[in-house]
From TrEMBL:
Annotated Pfam families: ArsP_1, YHS
GO cellular component, one term: plasma membrane
Protein name: TRASH domain-containing protein
Superkingdom of origin: Bacteria
Family affiliation: Belongs to the UPF0718 family.
Gene Ontology MF terms in the entry: oxidoreductase activity
Membrane-related topology note: Multi-pass membrane protein
Places the protein is found: Cell membrane
SUPFAM superfamilies: Ferritin-like
Length: 498
């Protein structure tokens, strides 16, 4: 095969891997978006105050239903820690966010087999249990207190919202049973789905392209030199140690790691090595540097070593369990992607998924019509949807508020705000809150008294007058709620007036 032929074949292999998994990705992101919209982060913070077994289980659950983006997971774990959550429980949350999510298991199942999907959840549970036992014994409490104080000081110095005040002062969300039956709730869920896809699109593209080249263009001799085989336990041990090292230098996180894992499996890495590699998306070099920034060099090194050890050991134990049960599949010999265009279940499911994604996109673009969008903002850097009340980072630029999914996005914005604003604002910092006694011309924006969202009165979805005071609303839903019971939203703060 010539040079150009290799390139074409590699790109084709990457495309067919993507084609095999389109419907699973849409399903996973849709379910993740729905749960993110209906699960309150206030509840997470409230119940993660220690690392008892019950709390670890809760941390794992909350992680499973959160965004699978590694950067967002690390930022949210940091925010929970700063706000008072136990450090070990925060790290368990981060692990579960990237290793126990639906889309990860679905893509593993489709690309290399159901055994890997099951092993991911079995091994993930083992890894989280080990982390809960080991981490409190190797991380000094005084060091954690110093890191928490440093993070709080940093937040205050760059004028972020007070972490505790945000959570306490934000309007209480509606009960999830009420939200799940509302169009507003599902439009917010679609916002999470679309923003997660937007945020992870580069990771996915890189993952599938690199996996295609690794599968087609890398000679078998390279894989044989890299992965020790035929030496029993020593081969298994070497593979689970090398797997996280490859993840460290791959720079690919989250679901984007799975196509690479498929290529490594075809190349000869052991079953446990694949599992350890997928676990180790949290050891990608950019994330290790983020840990260093969050917690300091010494704590970041210790944390990374604990991660590496638990990931490798969990992969080794999982391989042992599956070997004893006779569930380790045979190594791939042909292409990773086996289904192409045609009247088959993959094509049918992909078509259904594309239609469903189109419906989600419609909900996302018309959120205000359905009463959604209140209390949310879009990260101007990565496009992720975040709750303004508990966003991991915040910045003010030219009188406008911007909210971010992570410190990584915040720092990118601070370095070059003009690149991401384009003359547009996310939220205005005006103290006008929901009403104006002199007309909308008196301020650039006002605050919706129902959801707290800052809006332009000239383009507001609704308007009402109560006691000779004007109020504007982000959506028909907020407008109708206010008209039905204005006293509910004005009794405490008179809609936020000074």
């Amino acid at each position: 095969m010539g040079f150009f032929g290799t390139i074409v074949s590699s790109l084709a292999e990457g495309f067919w891997m993507f084609y095999d998994t389109v419907w699973a990705l849409v399903l996973g992101f849709a379910l993740s978006g729905a749960v993110q919209a209906f699960v309150s982060k206030r509840e997470m913070q409230r119940v993660l105050g220690d690392h008892r077994p019950k709390t670890v289980v809760r941390s794992s659950f909350f992680g499973m239903v959160s965004s699978s983006c590694s950067y967002a997971a690390s930022a949210l774990a940091k925010s929970l820690f700063v706000r008072g959550a136990d450090f070990t429980s925060s790290m368990v949350f981060m692990f579960a966010s990237t290793n126990l999510v639906i889309e990860l298991g679905a893509v593993l199942w489709l690309l290399i087999g159901w055994q890997f999907a099951v092993a991911e959840f079995v091994g993930g549970s083992i890894m989280i249990a080990m982390l809960a036992v080991v981490l409190p014994r190797v991380i000094d409490v005084a060091e954690l207190d110093a890191a928490r104080d440093r993070l709080r000081t940093r937040s205050a110095s760059r004028s972020e919202h007070d972490e505790h005040a945000d959570v306490q002062d934000a309007p209480a969300p509606l009960p999830w049973r009420q939200r799940i039956r509302s169009r507003a709730g599902w439009s917010d869920a679609s916002g999470y789905t679309i923003s997660d896809v937007t945020m992870l699109r580069k990771e996915l593209v890189i993952g599938f392209v690199v996996a295609g080249f690794a599968s087609v263009a890398v000679p078998t001799s390279v894989w044989r030199a890299l992965f020790l085989t035929g030496h029993g336990i020593f081969s298994a041990l070497e593979n689970v140690i090398v797997g996280p090292v490859l993840a460290f230098i791959s720079f690919v996180c989250s679901v984007g790691n799975v196509p690479l894992a498929a290529a490594l499996w075809k190349g000869g890495i052991s079953f446990g090595g694949v599992i350890a590699f997928v676990f180790a998306d949290l050891l990608a070099l950019p994330l290790v540097l983020i840990y260093r920034k969050f917690y300091g060099t010494r704590l970041a090194i210790r944390l990374s070593l604990v991660f590496w050890a638990t990931m490798s050991l969990a992969g080794l134990i999982t391989e042992g369990i599956f070997t004893l049960l006779g569930l380790v599949p045979g190594t791939l010999t042909g292409g990773i992607a086996t289904v192409h265009f045609g009247l088959n279940y993959t094509t049918i499911l992909d078509v259904i998924a594309v239609i469903a994604f189109g419906c989600l996109y419609y909900l996302y673009k018309n959120a205000s019509k359905f009463g959604g969008g209140g209390g949310y903002a879009k990260d101007p850097v990565c496009g992720m949807q975040v709750r303004t009340a508990d966003a991991p980072a915040h910045s003010t630029h030219q009188g406008h508020d911007f909210y971010f999914c992570s410190d990584k996005c915040h720092d990118a914005f601070e370095a070059e705000p003009a690149k991401y604003t384009g003359g547009q604002s996310a939220h205005d910092t005006s103290e006008m809150t929901g009403h104006a006694e002199t007309g909308p011309e008196a301020s650039a924006t006002v605050r919706d008294p129902v959801c707290g969202m800052n809006i332009d009165p000239h383009t507001a979805a609704g308007h009402a007058t109560h006691d000779d005071v004007d109020y504007w609303f982000c959506s028909d839903g907020c407008h109708q709620d206010f008209v039905a019971d204005p006293a509910r939203y004005l009794s405490s703060k008179k809609a936020g007036s000074a």
